[in-house]
Amino acid sequence: MLYVIFSTFPDEESAEKVAKEAIAKRLAACIWIVPGIKSYYIWKNEMQEDKEVLLVAKVPEEKVDELTEFVRKNHPYEVPEIIGVKADRVLPEYLKWAKEVCQGEG
Amino acid sequence: MLYVIFSTFPDEESAEKVAKEAIAKRLAACIWIVPGIKSYYIWKNEMQEDKEVLLVAKVPEEKVDELTEFVRKNHPYEVPEIIGVKADRVLPEYLKWAKEVCQGEG
Amino acid sequence: MLYVIFSTFPDEESAEKVAKEAIAKRLAACIWIVPGIKSYYIWKNEMQEDKEVLLVAKVPEEKVDELTEFVRKNHPYEVPEIIGVKADRVLPEYLKWAKEVCQGEG
Q: Which terms does the record give in the GO molecular function aspect (chains A, B, C) (predicted)?
């Protein structure tokens, strides 16, 4: 099984730093960075409108906890948004590659 | 549990209006707007290619029906695309914050 | 039930070609193309940083295998990323439309 983990960052620099380190540590098979997101939410009773960048990590299930903890520890926010969605239909060859690369092969 | 709700809009203005109102009504904890999407679909037997904007709402499960109904009622399209995906791995601190903010706290 | 299928492409041209053909063959109800993605992954032990385009197909469950096979056969990569996530909360009118359009109606 594969998980798709979403987390937003304040800028591309902080997102890319975490992305590259997570990949180097083999905590995710592949990570996308999607720039130009606008985020709306309430913080201390006031509407916030922030420019953000979205990090999307594709992670074998066995690495989800480790990847989540790594992002949390290295994230600029105190309470970062880290949400995981199960991908239960994955091209078998891609899933095989993803698992191998996260075990240090490839 | 948290849900990620996707809905596309014809432009940033209509998407932002719905996003801000949904957040103000505490129907979603956080909403992203992703600009610059291209959509392809068939309508009355003809290929359509539209420029659209993607709204992505992070919603505690107990608010999904209310948020879906709100988006439907305030959407410029007759049959809007409103699709929800379950996020079953969410950072606990973030999930706690999302639930509280949708109950009017924070 | 509806599935959301993600696949990244090297450029908009190859993504749009596959998107339009999949829609014309009624293998998906609607397809988004999201430009300007950056992808990080390891290939032959080296960190890769590619500019990519994300294709997102909304597919009735009964068409998921056919759509996946079509994307795999027409994709420029040898091992393409094709991952599917279940959308279990879909606006009923939209789901009805999606099923009909994939059966050649509408």
A: copper ion binding
For residue range A38-60, list pLDDT tens digits in order: 999 999 899 999 999 999 999 99
Q: What is the CATH number of the domain that holds B7?
A: 3.30.70.120
Answer yes or no: do C41 and A35 touch at CB < 8 A: no
- C 1-30 near A (Cβ less than 8 A): 3, 5-6, 8
Q: What ipTM was reported for this prediction?
A: 0.95
Q: Which of C34, C87, C97 sits opposite B85 (nearest CB)?
A: C87
B79 within domain boundaries: yes
List all chains that touch chain A, counting a touch as 3 or more CB pairs closer than 8 Å.
Answer: B, C
SS3 of C1-44: the string is: CEEEEEEEECCHHHHHHHHHHHHHCCCCCEEEEEEEEEEEEEEC
Q: What is the pLDDT of residues C15-53, one digit of tens each?
A: 999 999 999 999 999 999 999 999 999 998 999 999 999
> Is position B102 within any domain?
no
Q: For C84, which residue in chain A has the nearest alpha carbon?
A: A89
Identity at C16, one-letter amino acid code: E
Given a contact cutoff of 8 angstroms between Cβ atoms, the answer to whether C66 and C7 are in contact is: no
Cα atoms found within 13 Å of the Cα of residue C105, Cβ hemisphere only: 6
Instruction: Tell me which chain B residues have a C-beta less than 8 angstroms from the C-beta of C30.
Output: 39-41, 81
The partner residue sitting opposite C30, judged by closest CB among B36, B40, B64, is: B40
**Nearest-Cα residue of chain A relative to residue B1:** A83
As for how many domains chain C has, the answer is 1
